[in-house]
């Protein structure tokens, strides 16, 4: 340890580096480039992962959506092209037959999927908006952020088929004055008065929903538009440990069985599996991280081998100097430590510079990607990864330094003194 803090030791190391400055710089760049690639690619993968987590933070990751379409195959006397209409009773059947389902929310809507929007009027101001019929459980699958003072649909609204609604940010701006609170106010939806009980904050990533949507109780929607037991689509969230692909297959199978659809008909029941998409994104990010690790380590190894080579050359050039040290009483351990310390120093220097440059590149990428529609956020490398990279630098520097160190120790003082 005292050898490590000896000024003469470091003077000799810097002197050796100074004699081979150009060669040393070129070799150090190899290690620097390897750690730089690792930091940038790992950070980029993390930024992609962060971006998608942020985009889908309000939606259950292990979720899917299913809707009835037209049949493409005849079955049990039914002709091709029959419209499959999902029903409210399907919820109970799905829950009973598929235990992996945690939440299931029946939903109806007016104003999308080709339907005409609802006309909403308030004190001479009007507009066309999409109106959703929802249950409170829908917020378990896709969270709704409600501004202070308001609330979302609750069970009492459902049981009493109350004429209450939750409006969007844009709806508030278009129908209410800037200094006017909409909570407790009334709007007319298709000539029926509704009391506003909340304003929802729009967050991207919720599919086809927007900042102007209006939510009313499912039971009220049923009465207002005479939809009976019909359901537009189901939003389903499985438990975190469930196989969402298997859940999707089971949901389709059960719905086909309920509505007399040919089991081989792939068009009658459509679905959108958010869980599969998210898992693919996570898998891609993990693959990018692994690739950065492989490429980074390979490049670092190449650079470290280069450092070993220049130290071997340095040892050969310093044969007389090392022989004199041995003749004056330097032990093999001291000579070996000197060469290994030089190797570790060069490797660590390259590693730290690579980390600093990589962090700078990630900071620049973060600034350039801010405000973009592409889901990308805060590309950083976890501290344990950085510390692991530095530890790898020490290990590799030590191992590669053993070769020239052993070569230096093997120099006999008498042979070294004979060299000119």
- How many domains, in number, for the residues? 3
What is the end-to-end distance? 34 Å
Q: Beta-strand level of the residues, as a percent range?
A: 15-25%
Main beta sheet strand tally, sense and closure: 6 strands, mixed
Mean pLDDT: 83
Q: What is the helix/strand order?
A: HHEEHEEEEHEHEHEEEHEEHEHHHHH
Give the overall shape: elongated
Overall structural class, as computed from helix and strand content, comes to: alpha+beta
- Main sheet strand line-up: 11-6-3-13-1-14
Number of E-type strands: 14
Number of DSSP helices?
13
Helical percentage: 40-55%
Report on this structure:
There is one protein chain. It is built from 13 helices and 14 strands. With 420 residues, it is an alpha+beta fold. The protein is 52% helix and 17% strand. The two termini are 34 Å apart. The chain has three domains: 7-56 and 279-418, no CATH class; 70-100 and 239-267, no CATH class; 104-231, no CATH class. The chain is elongated. Helix 2 runs antiparallel to helix 9 and helix 3 (90-97) packs across helix 8.
